[in-house]
Amino acid sequence: MALPQKTLQKSVAFSGIGLHSGNKVTMTLMPASPNSGLRFRRVDLEGKPEIEARSENVVDTQRSTTLGRGSVRIHTVEHVLAALQGAGIHNAVIELDAPEPPIADGSSREFARLIREAGTVDQADRIEPIELTSPIEFSIGDTHMAAFPHNGFKLTCTSADKGGRFTQFFSLEVTEESWERDLSHARTFGFLEEIEYLYRNGLIRGASLENAIIVRDDAVLTNEPLRYPEEFVRHKMLDMVGDLALVGRPLRAHVVAVKPSHQANTEMAKAILSQTRRRIEVAQTFSPPPASAAEKPSTKTAAGAAKPVSPVTDSKPSETPVRDGATLDVEQVMQMLPHRPPFLMVDRVTRIEGNRITALKQVTMGEPYFAGHFPGHPIMPGVLQLEAMAQVAGLLLLREAENLGKLAYFMSAEEVKWRKPVRPGDTLVIDIEMTKIRGKIAKAKGVCLVDGETVSEANVTFMLVDR
Q1: Which H or E run contains 139?
Q2: Rounded distance, CA 114 to CA 112, Å?
Q3: What is the reported pTM?
Q4: Can you tell me the distance from the alpha carbon of 233 to that of 230, in angstroms, rounded to the nearest whole number?
Q5: Which of 78, 303, 408, 467 has most Cβ atoms within 10 angstroms of its Cβ?
Q6: Distance between CA atoms of 104 and 88, rounded to whole angstroms?
Q7: How far apart are alpha carbons 233 and 220 in whole angstroms?
Q8: What is the largest CA-CA distance in the chain?
Q9: Taking the CB of residue 16, how many other CB atoms lie within 10 A of it?
Q10: Cα 459 to Cα 446: distance, rounded to the nearest angstrom
Q11: What pLDDT digit, counting tens, does each position of 276-290 carry?
């Protein structure tokens, strides 16, 4: 059942030191618009680049979870993501003036306090939780992970070091109340021999007994008594909450872990998303080549005469998704899109790869709009370039098995720029990157090029509806 989306009522800030750099950092948690998700913003870098908290943006999982896009990195994101996820926050901006959030006391306690201080507010838009349809199970080294369909969010975890020391077990139905009470206070911990290695290799410069528990042989070194009898395993579960937040939606599942790690947690997030999207790897593309006229089926008129089935009016979407690496000709495109000439702005799809797609539109003098735009100086209207971006973005979303047969309604465009005119004889290359998918709403970054030069660009938003 869809839930109201939630964000913060106001901005709140916290300053401290980063775990790995040891440098001072200020973090500001800010409200965000519906369907924008959780995203980090580096205000110390030119252009204030943002990275969405999504599993596809994970670039490193050594000792913590690191998100990246291009050369921009955000380290140790799991504790603040756990606090936002635990509080049921769907949309927020995490502003940072350094490459990592403050470590605080090594738990999520300070971040949970910040969220209470800010307050939360329900938003008009709703969000569909992710629900598993079948179990997921895998192993990575000593780590074993499994997830099962469940009507809530439950974690069951066993943790231990490589020698089996400090083996602990805990299981919890995670709600907003149980998250803050039973998990958010659990501090990070490390074994002395591991800490010495990490420090020698330039990591955890900010670690101390103020923000971590250190285990030396069988002794537990801490500046205060343990906050929970099973604080070690509960911190592992705190990390799981943060890493699993990278699915980008509320999760309905029972996740069981033995010796979890950031690598395994983020791989589980990817596996859950993969099942949700129900991608089916097949040896063919969206559909076989169109049949010849002699092979096409026919229907009977009232008088009994046969008439060919029109691929424009009578064809139905195939039930096979489009795999990565596929190309589509115009007839295959028309099986996915409802648009028809003269409003079909896609002649061919040349590349589909993950969250990216590239398509072509041959701009000819025969285009009907050139008669009036402009006589003697024909230029393709910029709004039709924008429409081309929206149609290609729709193709990328409609490739998924669960979306076949639906329509992609163009809703809005932002940061639209037209840079150069497009004239008859040009080949318009439309390059699209999907940046966000939230339930039935999706956003994409589009660029149109001619001869390798950008002629227009925009961020487009569209919504999936049933035919």
Answers
A1: strand 136-140
A2: 5
A3: 0.60
A4: 6
A5: 78
A6: 21
A7: 14
A8: 92
A9: 18
A10: 6
A11: 875 333 323 343 444
Ranges in the chain, pLDDT < 70: 20-21, 191-211, 278-324, 400-405, 467
User: Domains, the chain, ranges and CATH?
Assistant: 3-277 (3.30.230.20), 312-466 (3.10.129.10)
Structure-token pair, residue 329: 């000709």
Query: Which amino acid appears at position 264 of this protein?
Result: A
By the 10 Å C-beta count (0-12 exposed, 13-18 middle, 19+ buried), 393 is classed as buried
Extract the tokens encoding 363.
């701009």
Confidence at residue 296, expressed as pLDDT on a 0 to 100 scale: 40
User: Which residues are identified as catalytic?
Assistant: 262, 373
**Contact call for residues 38 and 92 (beta carbons, < 8 A):** yes
Convert the pLDDT of each residue in 318-375 to its tens digit.
444 566 677 888 888 888 888 888 889 999 999 888 889 999 998 988 888 888 898 8
Cβ pair 324, 352 in contact under 8 A: yes
CA distance 429 to 167: 57
Which amino acid makes up residue 293?
A
**Whole-angstrom distance, CA of residue 332 vs CA of residue 315:** 10
The residue written with tokens 């950008």 in the block is 454
Q: Cis peptide leading into 342, omega within 30 of 0?
A: yes
